[in-house]
Amino acid sequence: MMNDVKATVVPVTQPYLPPLVEFMPYLEQIWANRWVTNGGPFHSQLEAALCEYLGVRHVSLVSNGTIALILALEALEITGEVITTPFSFVATTHAIHWNGIKPVFADIDPVSMNLDPSRIEAAITPETRAIVPVHVYGNPCDVEQIQKIADKHGLRVIYDAAHAFGVRRHNQSILNFGDMSVLSFHGTKIFHTFEGGAIVFSDAEMKRRVDRLKNFGIEDEVTVTACGLNGKMNEVQAAFGLLQLQHMPRAQEARARIDQRYREALGNIRGLQLLEVDAINSRNYAYFPIRVTPEFPVSRDTLYDELRARQIAVRRYFYPLISQFADYRALPSAKRENLPVANAVAEQVLCLPIFSMLEEQVQARIIDIVLAMAGVATV
């Protein structure tokens, strides 16, 4: 019997919001400082705290993850063509397009759902200047193989790590791979500052360059050295980020328990594929994607409609592919026959709710609905 819990709208992700009483001292300090933006004390503290927490050398805070990627491409002076994945949030390709760069889509790996290194090399042309892979769902790319390809062809690598906050590979931060990594601190992310983002570097001079670019290219009071933009994070966001870091261990533990319950209940259901766990990578439990294959009794969209009808706001994340949107579908690399795996995955994937405040009885109701659609009796 399906777990009888009062139906409320259950989103895929939901921001963790610490009690307001914990945030008030930060707001009072901002008021006392009379410094609300332009690299204030909390901004500097959060950059330092993130370097320590994430295990990276340099962080530049920005207003959001899209601006982070736009600035990263500009700072590295990327032109021509960039190879990227069609299986991501559209901002990944939008940032490339905004910089006047031509995106070239390559297919994805059927297991990891990340950019397939074996398809990258075939997409390289004399105009290729960089690769922008995405750590989809916080699951690390094959960074070693991607770097080999980049080194062989003299290409830059910028990782879209919007989902990969805190993830480690071989016990080092996934953010240390490539030339740069960019993060999103949007309200739906496991670590957030309401809105916000960051760029991670190993090079101090590159951080200085980005810090100028995100502040209109201003060098000093009378000197502008580059055509920058306004991409700064304000003090309220930075202060909230400092508070959020204090709650990260507890939030991660809660997400890990939710992930485990899903795996125990759904891991052996015919027609459902769960994202495989790789022992060399840590996990941040950012998302819980399942793939609804043809062996499942109903289609992905039928399961989606049933869950939505029961107030479970699941997402077909990512569907449609970026390559199918109006601005990109005319690109030669966007043709369906060039992206068979990405198209198949996009038509099967469904993200179930996972966030630290998801109650066990609500999760049980979600599981019961999926099992009922699978034809599995529940108690």
From TrEMBL:
Pfam family of the protein (one): DegT_DnrJ_EryC1
- Organism taxonomic ancestry: Bacteria, Pseudomonadati, Pseudomonadota, Betaproteobacteria, Burkholderiales
Which molecular function GO terms apply here?
transaminase activity
The entry assigns this protein to a family as follows: Belongs to the DegT/DnrJ/EryC1 family.
> What is the superkingdom listed in this entry's lineage?
Bacteria
The answer, when asked if NADP is one of the entry's keywords, is no
CDD domains the UniProt entry points to:
AHBA_syn
UniProt KW keywords: Aminotransferase, Pyridoxal phosphate, Transferase
**Keyword Cytoplasm attached:** no
What name appears for this protein in its UniProt entry? DegT/DnrJ/EryC1/StrS family aminotransferase
